Queue: 2 jobs
Job 1
Amino acid sequence: MGFMQNKRVLIVGVASDRSIAAGVAKAMHAQGAELAFTYQTDKLKKRVDKLADATGSEIVLPLDVGDDQQINDVFTELGKHWDGLDAIIHSVGFAPRELLEGNYVDVTTREGFLLAHEISSYSFTALAKAGREMMQGRNGSLLTMTYLGAVRTIKNYNVMGVAKASLEANVRYMAEALGPEGTRVNAVSAGPIRTLAASGINDFRSMLAEAEAKTPLRRNVTIEQVGNAAAFLCSDLASGITGDVLYVDSGYHILGMA
Ligand code: NAD
Ligand code: 0WE
């Protein structure tokens, strides 16, 4: 019997089979979880349908996390299938591409800053708010994906680093707010992985090479490794862990002179 048996999980952020959220879905399915998925745009629906099929799920719902109506509709719809919810996976991040290259102060705009924070940080709170009722009395768990750029400056990561710092603080405040009802809130900080979100980034290839050469384990991480850590954090094996950030980065973050 898997350690996610009898857990019902909503997964937000699958865009392809290489998405980190897809690795989370597969790991949780392997441990016996029952899954529901959302997709951001109609263009992505087919790919999410395919993963849902592969993981025995029949619940696939539209969701742009910038829209409160769509967020509420997801939980209304989910309530028609399930009488409760054990976990929400938030694997979403966005900033306008032109803000992710060049001098941070030069390229950052008010509009881009706000959008990055709305989609990459506030949306996690928004999901917690809307999903709260369905998660009552179940020792539920909320999980998000972050990156080292939250706590160190990383060239070109720019406003996303500021938004991830907000997201990590969000994890702590949400953990404190929801702890009394048994809900845990954590983040996984993944090392660089080639996903759709990464494919838009200049010179991502050399970042992967640099990480591979310098991490203690001398290899980059996979969505399977991130998925396994995510499954653990959302399971009862992690019942003593909340408000925390777990690094799944082959040890890169411990280095002083990378
Ligand atoms: P991805 O492109 O596969 O996933 C990003 C997801 O965000 C997509 O599914 C996209 O549809 C969704 N999204 C963006 N804006 C949205 C909106 N308004 N409404 C709903 N969904 C929206 O890339 P990924 O690398 O799997 O990214 C997932 C998470 O992992 C992100 O938070 C990212 O910052 C984080 N992360 C990625 C890496 C990496 O190197 N790939 C490393 C650490 C953390
Ligand atoms: O969080 C991310 C990427 C998030 C991301 C990616 C894009 C590309 C397309 C957010 N918004 C957009 N907007 C787009 O239009 N990562 C952790 C991957 C990543 O992105 C970087 C990195 C790493 C690592 C950008 C610069 C430097 C390093």
Job 2
Amino acid sequence: MSDNLDEFLKELQDKIFDDTIRDYGQKAFDRWRNPLHMHPMENPDGYGRITGPCGDTMEIFLRFEKGKVSKASFQTDGCGPSIVCGSLAAELALGKQPDEIRKITNETILETIGGLPEESRHCALLAANTLREAVDRYTKQKATGKDNIQGNNLHGG
Ligand code: FES
């Protein structure tokens, strides 16, 4: 009985994984199963937090050294594609200066992952907008010399 159940669950999982690879591609699937840079960061230099129209929230944390991103991470309570896109947004920001980060758009993220189905494209927009928010707040905070950039609850998407 238990063996049958285990077998059934294994087949079900394999089918879900196969369907996900078919719909989202191997690259997105791998990143969803093993997302990079998915963790909060204490005292980031740049911080963005946006809740998209879908109701999912993304946070992006940036640390800068010598004007370039030395550490980047993200968190989200969103869907699988939002995990993939947040992970890529953090990865794409690494080693870049603010102006270079501002060139990272939802299209950049989508190209990097090899595209997403139409219904998931807005997840890349959420990641790109949150990254933009993080870098803009870093730049603004640097210009005004204010600390404590974390803690505001921004909405958009
Ligand atoms: Fe909300 Fe993907 S459905 S970010």
